[in-house]
Amino acid sequence: MSNSTSEKIPKELFEPASTDNMDNELIAKPQLSFMKDAWLRVRKNKGAIISAVILLLVIIMAAIGPHISHYDAYAQDVTKSNLPPKIPGLEKLGIFDGKQEIGGVETDVYKQQNVKEYYWFGTDSLGRDLFSRVWLGTRVSLYIALLAALIDMVIGVGYGLISGFKGGRVDNVMQRILEIISGIPNLIVVILMLLILKPGIISITIAMVITGWVGMARVVRGQVLKLKDQEYILASRTLGAKNSRLLLKHLLPNLSGVIIINTMFTIPSAIFFEAFLSFIGIGLQAPRASLGTLIEDGYQTFQFLPHLMFIPCIVICIILIACNLIGDGLRDAFDPKMRD
Is the pLDDT of residue 209 over 50? Predict the structure, then answer.
């Protein structure tokens, strides 16, 4: 017999490897909350992130823009009226150089009117600095955006939570009230406010408080009707949880995604609503500046001074597009069907 058959194989080699039961309890990846998981998916959406950065820059410029130009937004100087944009540094590149085509001839308007200052966005027909007025108008749009968000969060969410959670006769009465309110157009409410108040931001605010939360209330009610019979709600109710705890600790956190998404889509429509009212003359009134009033002023001289209309239009388009792209990113992040 060979030596290989005479060798004995150690029986320790046939014993199972020792395992530590504690290793089975270890979590390979850190636990993620719903909001953190949504943020990780939003971060992958480059369009939403870029839009958020742009919107943040617009907010910063609305805060500090009127102070950068050193010109009073309401100061009039007809000797400097209808000046085209002129920006230091860029004038050497042939853009924003203060030149304008007059009678088919390109003319340096600043030199012609003996103006030595720089007006970055130009001036209007009364010689007011358009740069300061655009950012003051942007403040109005951002105020409307904040107001729409607050109305949705407070009135719309609260009304929808109570209506959907109570159900029965309470829900029936609340929905009939909602149908009556939704049947009144916002424009009619604003016109009625003009009979009581002067045209301005107050009448727009009251109109939005009366009718601006209807869409959010319906969405929240529908979600509450779907969630209130879930097992975790029944278990919490069985353990003695009060209605307030069920609403605030269980239902509201599960509705956060829907609330945020609908709020982001409400903001652009509210901004456009204010701009439309100011454009047709029943919103903010002169000499107050809003993007709607600036567009209306530029519309009258569009053929000769297109920058007076283009600049506020570009600003409001940036705000609307940024809000819509952020809303799309949040919808994809909070919607479980969009998980990658």
Answer: yes
Inter-residue contact 219 to 160 (CB < 8 Å) = yes
Q: Is 70 exceeded by the pLDDT of residue 77?
A: yes
For residues 127 and 76, the answer to whether their CB atoms sit within 8 Å is yes
167 has a pLDDT exceeding 70: yes
Q: Where in the sequence is the domain holding 216, given as residue range(s)?
A: 50-83+119-338
Mean pLDDT value of segment 165-174: 90
More confident residue, 20 or 176: 176
Q: What is the 3-state secondary structure (H, E, C) of the chain?
A: CCHHHHCCCCHHHHCCCCCCHHHHHCCCCCCCCHHHHHHHHHHHCHHHHHHHHHHHHHHHHHHHHHHHCCCCCCCCCHHHCCCCCECCCHHHHCCCECEEEECCEEEEHHHHCCCCCCCCCCECCCCCEHHHHHHHHHHHHHHHHHHHHHHHHHHHHHHHHHHHHHCHHHHHHHHHHHHHHHCCCHHHHHHHHHHHCCCCHHHHHHHHHHHCCHHHHHHHHHHHHHHCCCHHHHHHHHCCCCHHHHHHHHHHHHCHHHHHHHHHHHHHHHHHHHHHHHHHCCCCCCCCCCHHHHHHHHHHCCCCCCHHHHHHHHHHHHHHHHHHHHHHHHHHHHCHHHCC
Q: Is residue 134 part of a domain?
A: yes
Average pLDDT over residues 209-238: 88
**CA–CA distance, 246 with 165 (Å, rounded to integer):** 9
- CATH number of 156's domain: 1.10.3720.10
- Residue 240 falls inside a structural domain: yes
- Over 80: is that where the pLDDT of 110 sits? yes
* Structure tokens belonging to residue 49: 């992130």
List, for residues 47-74, the tens digit of each pLDDT value.
889 999 999 999 999 999 888 888 888 8
